[in-house]
Amino acid sequence: MRKTSLIGGRDARLAIARLWLSEGIPFAFRESPGIYEAVRMWVAVMLGIDPKEITMIGSARLGQSLSDDNFGRPFSDQSDMDLTIVSEDYFEKMRTEFCKWALQYESGEVSPQNDRERRFWDDHLKRGPKLISKGFLDSHMIPLRNAYPVAQNVGQTMYLLKEKLKATEEAPHVLKVDARVYRRWDAFARQMDLSLSRMQDALHPR
Predict the structure, then answer these.
(1) How many domains does the chain have?
(2) Alpha carbon of residue 196 to chain centroid
(3) Which of 96, 135, 148, 162 is least enclosed, having the fewest CB within 10 Å?
(4) How far is CA 57 from CA 31, 60, 160, in A?
(5) Would you say residue 67 lies in a domain?
(6) Alpha-carbon distance 33 to 149, whole Å?
(7) pLDDT digits 0-9 by tens, 126-176
(8) How much is the pTM?
(9) What is the Cα–Cα distance from 206 to 202, expressed in whole angstroms?
(10) Is 178 helix (H, G, I), strand (E, B) or coil?
(11) Is-contact 49 87, C-beta < 8 A?
(12) Does 4 fall in a domain?
């Protein structure tokens, strides 16, 4: 049988992104697949989306991290859990709220509570439009305030999910749960292609 690897170019990486990184039971739930499906159903109800629009990436999916700063680190109770939502409608809601926040921040209508929050806000204000142009947005880039109910609901849902996992026997425990919203699956696949390309470079330096 022919041995397969990531050394198959961009088309192979995109295929992996579409299948391996978005379907099936994640590593974190390998012993409790029913809990994973229950998580998807619960999050879907909380956010008003289809369970099929929810998947999981990162070390919880693969068993080890692909991020630049934690590359290769095994999944553990000290890891984050990265949920992915792929929904054009939900992406547009998040994009609208981000733009609303950005305009209000720049005009002085809303202000950060301290210097630490200001640094985060300034970074999000700079990076947000670039991420939106690539077809995705991280939910934590919008403040969890009443003026931004969609982002606030995502943040509260992620917090409650972490607590539910903590209280559920056989469920994985994590430091926190984050959510990234993609406009479409092709945007998700392109971003995963970049992660796989970095992994390929790390494993097989040119």
Answers:
(1) 1
(2) 16
(3) 96
(4) 17, 6, 19
(5) yes
(6) 31
(7) 999 999 999 999 999 999 999 999 999 999 999 999 999 999 999 999 999
(8) 0.82
(9) 9
(10) strand
(11) yes
(12) no
